[in-house]
Each structure stands twice: as structure tokens, then as C-alpha cells.
Amino acid sequence: MKYSLLILFILSAQITYSQNDWRVYNDQDSLIENVNTTIENDILFDSEGSVIINADPRIDSLVSIVAENPPEIKGYRLEIFFGNRKDAEKVKSEFLKGFDQYPIYVIWQQPNFKVHVGNFITKLQAEKAQQEIKYAYPNSYIVITEIKTAD
After folding, report:
1. Is residue 2 part of a domain?
2. What is the DSSP letter of 70?
3. Domain containing 133: what range?
4. Is residue 95 within 8 Å of residue 115, measured between CB atoms?
């Protein structure tokens, strides 16, 4: 009795496994036709062989909004001065005469104004810039802040 139940169990498992294998195709042509139909339904081709993408027009407006208002990310800047507003504007104009390749920002943080330079994604970039300006601004130091990605 035990042996007959064991044999019955093994045969039933074999039969059910062979019926569940859906990846077996006897006719390769039907598989190719299914793939071609799927491609034709998803993408429209014109006569010259280029691709026409049908997209929601709101996507373009979102892309333009992000391009106009780039997100701010965590990055690094050099702080070259802090003090009163008059001196901060003077330092800014002097800096632009010698190092115009970096964007410069005058930031008010109560009770002082700070002059920050650059938009650096990595600390290594900020250190390189600090080495370039260290003779003119020996007291500059790296600060972690939100930077603009478009500059």
C-alpha cells in the first residue's frame, strides 16, 4: 500500500509539472508573430525609418520648469569673507576681477554678511579651488551648503 501511494504521488507530480511549463513553444512562428505584433502596437514607424514617440505634452512643460528652476543639492562652497555689507560687496568685486570663473554669492546671515564662492559637488573640487585662491584669500575655508546645479 505504501509503495503504490508513493508511485502514484511521483507520477502525479510528474504530470502536473509537465503541464505547468508554459515556456515550451511547438511553433516558433507563432512566437515571432506575437513579438512583432507587440512591437507594432507599442511604437509607430514612419516611412523613413525614424521613431515617432507619442508622449503627453505636459512632460515637456515639466522639463522646462525644472530647467528654469534647477533643484538645489548638498555641495560645497568656499567662504572667503564675513562681516558688514559694505565690505562684503567690496570683497565680491575684488574677487570677480581676479577669479571670474567661479560664481560668487553674498549671503546675509544675521548679524553678518558672508561671501561664498563656487558650486562644488565634491569636496575635492572645493579643495582644488581653495588652492587656486589661497594666496589672495588665505583665510578661506570650505563650507557645506545647498548649491545650484545649473551654475
Report:
1. no
2. P
3. 72-148
4. yes
Is the CA virtual torsion 48, 54, 60, 62 positive or negative? Answer: negative
pTM over 0.90: no
Which residues are CB-neighbours of 98 under 8 A, at least 6 positions away?
Answer: 136
Segment 116-133, tens digit of pLDDT: 999 999 999 999 999 999
In a domain, 10, yes or no: no
Which of the 8 DSSP states describes residue 49? S
- Considering the domain boundaries, does residue 97 fall inside one? yes
Q: How many domains does the chain have?
A: 1
Could you tell me which residues come within 8 angstroms of residue 139 by beta carbon, excluding any fewer than 6 positions away?
80
84 closest CA partner among 117, 99, 106, 116: 106
16 lies in a domain? no
